[in-house]
Amino acid sequence: INSVFIPVSTYIDLSDYQFEVFNRWGLKVFETTDPSQGWDGTHGGSKCELGVYVYLIRYKSSIGEYIQQKGTVTLIR
């Protein structure tokens, strides 16, 4: 079990990166533009509810191609 959810990526343009996590109602609980920062399962300093969250990653590859990836992550403790 990991204490932080962080996407692993290679060959990205660090100047154009965005990682977001949303709860089941569509509320954004986490956002960063720093590829080395991950989500620790909190929102506003409080622990989030256990369950399934949707993540969205947008970035520009090293060859200038824009890529968007999305999926789900399950929060357990």
Report helical residue fraction: under 10%
What is the string of helix and strand elements?
Answer: EEEEEE
* Beginning-to-end CA distance, first to last residue: 8 Å
CA-based gyration radius: 13 Å
Strand proportion:
over 45%
Textual characterization of the structure:
This protein is mainly β and 77 residues long. Helix content is 0%, strand content 53%. The chain is built from no helices and 6 strands. The strands form 2 sheets. The protein has a 4-stranded antiparallel beta sheet with strand order 2-1-5-6, with no helix packed on it. The N and C termini lie close together (8 Å).
Quick structural summary:
The protein has 77 residues and is an all-beta fold.
Which helices and strands appear, and what pairs or packs with what?
Elements: E1 12-22, E2 28-32, E3 42-43, E4 46-47, E5 51-61, E6 66-75
List key phrases describing it.
single chain, 77 residues, mainly beta, four-stranded antiparallel sheet, two-stranded antiparallel ribbon, elongated
